[in-house]
Amino acid sequence: MLHIAIINGPNLNLLGTREPHIYGNQSFEQYFSALKARFPGIDLQYYQSNIEGELINLLHVCMGKVQGIILNAGAYTHTSIALADAVAAIGIPVVEVHISNVLSREEFRKTSFIASKCVGSISGLGMEGYALAVQYFAGKTA
After folding, report:
1. Which residues contact 60 (CB under 8 A, 6 or more apart)?
2. Residue 96 contacts residue 122 (beta carbons within 8 Å)
3. Coil, helix or strand for 47?
4. Catalytic residue among 23, 31, 76, 130
5. Is 98 a catalytic residue?
6. Using an 8 Å Cβ cutoff, are 7 and 55 in contact?
7. 104/85 Cα distance (integer angstroms)
8. Helical H segments across the chain, by residue range
9. Do strands 42-48 and 2-8 pair parallel, antiparallel, or not at all (unpaired)?
10. Rounded CA gap, 79 and 68, in Å?
11. Among 1, 14, 83, 140, fewest CB within 10 Å belongs to which?
């Protein structure tokens, strides 16, 4: 069975209430339930933290346990060299996902320290970006 970890960073625990005009009205927990139902043959695990060091620890814990990681590092995408180093160090393919189109937003959001360490990036497709990342990993093992 394919094991994939979804790791969300700061403020993504507020999905459904946080700036719904940008992020929608659905909580990630609601979306995650639907995502698991959509991919019943894949073991999906979900983690969220607002703390950079905890996100790094979660990436480390995934070593030897998952075949892929979907990472929405939130604002840490634009600030954290430590997260980028962790992605590079763990030896697990990572797909960077952003719900909003970060390239159409503020200038500082156009910089991603983690993108170059990832196998790919999905941005601006809403929550569907997570499903597309799952499909990518499923196709790699098919």
Report:
1. 86, 90
2. yes
3. strand
4. 23
5. yes
6. yes
7. 26
8. 20-23, 28-38, 52-61, 81-90, 128-141
9. parallel
10. 23
11. 1
Type of residue numbered 121: S
Contacts for 24-27: CB closer than 8 Å, 24+ residues apart:
24/99, 24/126, 24/127, 26/127
Q: Read off the pLDDT of residues 47-94 as tens digits, 9 standing for 90 and up.
A: 999 999 999 999 999 999 999 999 999 999 999 999 999 999 999 999
* Cβ contacts of 77 within 8 Å, gap of 6 or more: 9, 83, 96, 98, 102, 109, 112, 113, 114, 115
Q: Is 60 a catalytic residue?
A: no
101 vs 80: CA distance, rounded Å: 19
Which tokens sit at 93? 């393919």
Which residue in 21, 98, 130, 136 is the catalytic one? Answer: 98
Q: The pTM is what? A: 0.94
Copy the structure tokens of residue 78. Answer: 């634009």
Q: Is 90 helix (H, G, I), strand (E, B) or coil?
A: helix
